């Protein structure tokens, strides 16, 4: 009784911020997956399987992966779960673990019937989402205003250097807010839950990407800023960026997806998809094949004509040279697993990025394409882009917060 009562509160090993982050729903639609209800798992009806699949994609896929091969959470493939059995799985789902597994049952998030449902579901083969290649991308690609029909000069009086792009998450929109007057200029329909807004090198275009992998290219020079091109690059995504190196400004755009695990290079003026590259491959630690290494942060180098791509589950930082995309050159830097977000130091030479479940900050030199060092920090660093400022004693520093504790790590740069 005492154990159950204690567990009605958030799990002592899992903070509220961590639980919100780890439990974020996948944007992959369960309805589009290929179901594999086999005779080797516990009995399930088709309706039960559909319900369990919906719960898994909403509650569990963010940690354990769409294919259940493991990501920041443990793998949950049938060869493992069937050995554990239904009773064990029900207990684990109900009470959670100090390692970060939420207590779905005693917290009231899942009913006892749903816990039983999930324990049986996990002993069946995982449903497989469809791939998303060039054919699928081009079917969603729209150029709403061709480059030649766009303004030749800024047609509004907005101070573009003080314009805010604000995510209206559940509404599937962004709001553009004038930083000078604090007024909303306009709201623009986007994909679901825009994860990131990125300015082009010129400052004219705003690129936003929703968790559903839809990209909007917004022209800020129009009298009222509006979408001029759009495309869907997968089923779930987090990152978009444009080329920044001198002489290559805005020639290309790039987006990385959680599913399928890949990135795509696009025309920077129209979003036409040009080159798709898979990120499936071997992990840096155990040298094992991972079928679902998600693309997290992407930044554009100022030192070379390259994009810097974080591959989450394999722990690799990819330096993607876009000088010749038909003969793409990629330098792969072994870092640490579970790479996520990060940003530049004040010189825009060094990329500092979080390997969140490894509790490390990885430092990459974009001039030499080399790993500089990996720095141990607190639990689950989550910097966004990080914060650069000058410390009176240590000079230029870069700082990150953490999801797993209340500390701020400050790194001298």
The end-to-end distance, rounded to whole angstroms, is 52 Å
Number of strand segments: 25
Structural class: alpha+beta
Large-scale geometry: globular
Overall CATH class of the largest domain: Mainly Beta
Which value, in Å, is the CA radius of gyration? Answer: 22 Å
Instruction: Characterize the main sheet.
Output: 5 strands, antiparallel
Look at the structure and give the mean pLDDT. 92
Number of domains: 2
- Helix fraction by DSSP (H/I, runs of at least 4): 10-25%
Number of helices: 7
Describe the structure.
There is one protein chain. This protein is an alpha+beta fold and 413 residues long. The protein has two domains: 2-121, Cytochrome c-like domain (Cytochrome Bc1 Complex, Chain D, domain 2, Orthogonal Bundle); 150-412, C-terminal (heme d1) domain of cytochrome cd1-nitrite reductase (Methanol Dehydrogenase, Chain A), CATH 2.140.10. Helix content is 16%, strand content 34%. It has seven helices and 25 strands. It has helices at residues 2-6, 16-22, 46-59, 61-64, 78-95, 112-121, 134-140; strands at 142-143, 163-168, 173-178, 184-189, 194-199, 205-210, 214-219, 226-232, 236-242, 252-259, 262-267, 273-278, 281-282, 289-290, 295-300, 306-311, 316-321, 329-334, 339-344, 350-355, 360-365, 370-376, 387-391, 395-400, 409-412. The strands form seven sheets. The chain has a five-stranded antiparallel beta sheet. Strands 9-10-11-12 form a four-stranded antiparallel beta sheet, covered by helices on one side. It is globular and about 65 Å long. The model is unreliable at 1-13 (pLDDT under 50).
